Amino acid sequence: MNLSVQELKQKLVKTLKSEYGYVPEEATDRQMYGTVLTVVQEMLLDKRGEYLDKLKQKDPKRIYYMSMEFLVGRSLKNNLYNLCLEPEMKRAVAELGFDLERIYDMEPDAGLGNGGLGRLASCYMDGATTLGYPVTGFSIRYEFGIFKQKIVDGWQVEFPDNWLEMGSYWLTPRVDEAVEVHFEGNVTEQWSEQGLKTIHSNYYSVRAVPYDLLISGHKSDAVNSLRLWRAESADAFDMNEFSRGEYVKSMESDAKAAAISKVLYPADDHIEGKELRLRQQYFFVSASLQNIVQAHLRQNPTLDNLPDKVVIHINDTHPALCVPELMRLLLDEYGYQWEKAWDITCRTLAYTNHTVMSEALEKWDLNLFRKHLPRITTIVEEINRRFCNEIFEKFPEKRGAIPSMAAIGDGCVRMANLCVIACYSVNGVSKLHSDILKEDLFKDFDDIFPHKLTNVTNGIAARRWLCQGNPLLTSMVKELIGDGFEKDLMELKKLEQYESDDTVLSCLGDIKQRNKENLARYISKANGINVDPCSMFDVQVKRLHEYKRQLMNALHILHLYLQIKNHGLEMEPRTFIFGAKASPGYFMAKEIIRFICGLGDMINKDSSISGMLKVIFLADYKVSLAEMIYPAAEISEQISQAGKEASGTGNMKMMLNGALTLGTMDGANIEIYEQVGKDNIFIFGMDTPEVNRLKAEGYHPRKVYETNPYVKEVLDFVQKGGIEGKNFETIVSYLLNNDSYMSLADFESYRQIHQTVNDVYKDACRWNQMSLHNIANSGIFSADRSIMDYVNNIWYK
Ligand code: AZC
Fold it and tell me: Which residues belong to the signal peptide in this entry (predicted)?
């Protein structure tokens, strides 16, 4: 966008006057914050108007990305960057007496997601919009996003995240497009002139009101929207009840409806079959599909051609109700016969799987399902009946597999099976993960639908994670290879020519140093601990889960501590940095946080190890904090048990910022390894076949304890209450008796690779060379590349 500093100033002054009635000299920071956001939002709306006009003429196929989660983070800087207005806005704001950096800091993260899956959805909105594809995201306008985390005595405590107070500036309500969603009630069949008709009556109605959050592409005409639904009561306030004095009763239906969009479920990679969650899913699916169908019918006389004009992409199974809901619309509202409706549905829907963890594969109790969604249940039953018949008749060799492939089994609706049965495309999120889907989880499906399963390796929004988050590195890269990489990340490859250039390498080292100093300042402010910015920054930031093995990392730190203290180990000074939210009901995850914090308390105050080790747990890990951490990371810990992390995307973000990966052959680590070669990454531990073999043989963690003296030393120390006199019996007994993700089995290999890391770090030049090589080869992990894979192989195939 072309606007001068002068023009921006005029807009700001005018808006400040009209919104708050003040001139700049009288305004507070908060008023200026509101003013800047309002001005940017108006520009987005204007640009969106022009884009929609163009779309109408061209009428391309629309992509609808259905996701219960979008981890948007902050939008102001991203929008200014994408509109190419950041320097001008900075000056305009400064000339009015304010500081744009301070205004950036006032913006809350829009934390409408838990972790990887939600952040991926946001990275994809950015990529698709920059590339000019008409993608609309659909989700819920949660009043409270992912909880705020505080650590009290090592224990995680959750606080509500009231993001709308300062974040609602970005949302435009579209009351004119509100729709109704029906729950509960009775389903009956009636004969009419058109044949047998299904009637859903006595339902409970909820009104869905859309709020649009606009996303501008970078140097592109496109402005797409993320449409977030808010729930409210569809029945007008019951004045009769109210005047009879039944205040509470009259408000009950309001509260019941509003509860649907109240709060994001804070569980990641595992599900709880809660009624409210099912209502959330149906609410946003039904509202979105009604909206999509109406939009299609404004441009087309019929829904017959829906699959030619629309793809509805299901982001994990949370929106799997798209399958029966699209069927319901076609059958009940638009009078289609089953076969034709099924054909349209199957050719319109595509599904991405993000996990093979069994506790995350959604299943709904059939009775609960029927109670809330009676009509949808009859449709799922019919889908299942027909599917099982088809297998029985057409694939006799698969008759034995019918019970496990069915959409309904063991009294539950199985959402993943439902998706694979219906969708025309099913993809995993890294090569390894997609192979596991084909060879294991969905093997029977792959045998009968040979072209359905495919792979799209995840990617990240490099413009956010490099250009906005790491301005120092970005300007160095621009100086060396120009700015083409902003739009084509593969251009980073050109950096390889500088791998032996001492000046470039030392400049890269200086930049890392300054980013570490920046993070050290934050740590000192947030945790009250001074860390040495010259020590190696070793980072593990992600959701807390046993399979991600933060505990193995912590055990190894304790091992280093004991070696320094008892055996005179000398090593390069290290700062271990953790950030992780635990699902509030996940006890072991919270115990692991307590363990890490206890470990930190003990180590950080021990002057006898002369600052060789520090352990920092950064509370409230979120997108905006990640933007500060990644540029400062030197080691990227990606140490999940092989076969468990579907892809990982933090691994890509740290690589792009020059950190070296220390990881297992899991998820996208394998593809990072393929890109950088074995000399530029630190790989350890069992790979997936080895894990499976050990599992089959029978894994006995106690044996590792008995045979590996380091493991024994560490666990004995914990058992004796060595960590601040604290009791970590839960952890010790879990490790000795269970160790579900084989941390002890991989410990020795992990320990040894850390020694290698320590040796390599002594040679700064070699380290910087490896770092530059990683940056140069990270281009493939751009979200733009992932989007093009979706475009070529799934959406516009
Ligand atoms: C995550 C995966 O755990 C992670 O490996 C992957 O990178 C990410 O999705 C994006 O694909 N999964 C989730 O966040 N949640 C669920 C339910 O899978």
Answer: none
